[in-house]
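User: structure tokens for this one?
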Amino acid sequence: MAVIEDWTPELAARIARDNGIDELTSRHWAVIDQMRRSYHETGASPSIRPLSKASGVPVKELYQLFPKGPAKLAAMVAGVPKPRGCI
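Assistant:
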């Protein structure tokens, strides 16, 4: 994973493509932006339920957007550490 300071939207798109997400939609970006915002505010990445609540994206949709484990994959694309408890 890239260092947090080296993250760019272009890098996010590349990481997403490498993980089976062909295009980042506005719904993806809502989650990615919230993941980054939460990390910068708290120093920790949110788990799936808090991420869903804060981003306004239902848990079921998170699994559609980030199919290989939504919180972990969203964190990877967002350039932040995976949430505690993610394997």
